[in-house]
Amino acid sequence: MMPRDASDANDPSSDSSGGGSRWSDLDRPPLNADALRRALVREGGLWTAIEVVQRTGSTNTDLVALAAAGKAAEGTVLVAEEQDAGRGRLDRTWTAPARSGLFFSVLLRPTEVSVARWGWLPLLAGVAVATGLARAAGVDTALKWPNDLLVTVGDEERKTGGILAERAGEDGVVVGIGINVTLRENELPVPTAGSLALAGARGTDRDPLLRAVLRSLEDRYGRWRSVGGDPVASGLQETYAAGCATLGRLVRAELPGDRSVTGEAVAIDGDGRLVLATENGVQEPVGAGDIVHLRPA
């Protein structure tokens, strides 16, 4: 299975909006696939292939299928200039105008790490993205457990990105990352959404942003994998907690089965779960669910 319109990924005459040149929005130039490969694909490095397609439904869906068919090695990166069926957590949709953000998926095969620790991968990706964006865009990005990326627009905390990890066969994980880069106020899907531009980023050129994020992810993943995925020895647990905007807040966890738990978020445990101190004095770990911030940190 190949992403739709892969053939026009680098065709300057193609336009995802259906007419005119893909350069018609000068604030949103296309990614340079060749330059990205020159900068990131190297012998002994994590990234082995970088493909940029003009349009697809979901880079995660495409890359999972390629991995299942044996057509993608670890370190494959699939980037779309536009997604029309992007997915977030809890089967939510993720859409944005063409070239307004970074929409990409990476294939990882952490065979040295116990599968029990693979749940740390979306949290690891969150730390890597926040670190890369801070360096390249000068924007402080906080993490909402488990994998939302938050920025401050004015005095409001808004979601500017998200992460979705999916198994790909017996030994692979596809991590999908979506980041709103130049989304304008009148393009926001919901009032609580944001973008790097709205948060005052010093630069919104997506090529250096993507390079910074992928280099940060390579570094963080390498350290985690080298110690067998140990979240303490790799520094991941401590770093994630330090950047987690959920800790210290009163939150409501909306859990599978129409159950909810309210309490103060007090810790990230060794399995990457959010620990809530409930009003009846019980500390309850939450491994899956939707978190609603009820009180500012």
General description of the model:
The protein is α+β, with helices and mostly antiparallel strands. Helix content is 22%, strand content 28%. It contains five helices and 14 strands. Strands 1-2-5-9-8-7-6 form a seven-stranded mixed β-sheet. Strands 13-12-11-10-14 form a five-stranded antiparallel β-sheet. β8 and β9 (172-180) form a beta hairpin. α1 (33-40) packs parallel to α4 (206-226) and α3 crosses α4. It is globular. The model is unreliable at 4-23 (pLDDT under 50).
Task: List the SSEs and their pairings.
Layout: H1 33-40, E1 49-53, H2 59-68, E2 76-80, E3 86-87, E4 93-94, E5 101-108, H3 121-137, E6 142-144, E7 148-153, E8 156-168, E9 172-180, H4 206-226, H5 236-243, E10 250-255, E11 259-268, E12 274-278, E13 283-286, E14 290-293
Parallel strand pairs: 1-2
Antiparallel strand pairs: 2-5, 3-4, 5-9, 6-7, 7-8, 8-9, 10-11, 10-14, 11-12, 12-13
Helix pairs in contact: 1-4, 3-4, 3-5
GO molecular function: biotin--[biotin carboxyl-carrier protein] ligase activity
Protein name: biotin--[biotin carboxyl-carrier protein] ligase
Keywords: Biotin, Ligase
Radius of gyration: 19 Å
Residue runs with pLDDT of under 50 for 5 or more positions: 4-23
Give the strand order, joined by hyphens, for the main sheet: 1-2-5-9-8-7-6
Secondary-structure-based class equals alpha+beta
Mean pLDDT: 89
Helix content: 10-25%
- Please tally the helical runs, counting DSSP H or I stretches of 4 or more residues: 5
Order of helices and strands: HEHEEEEHEEEEHHEEEEE
Distance from N terminus to C terminus (CA atoms, Å) equals 45 Å
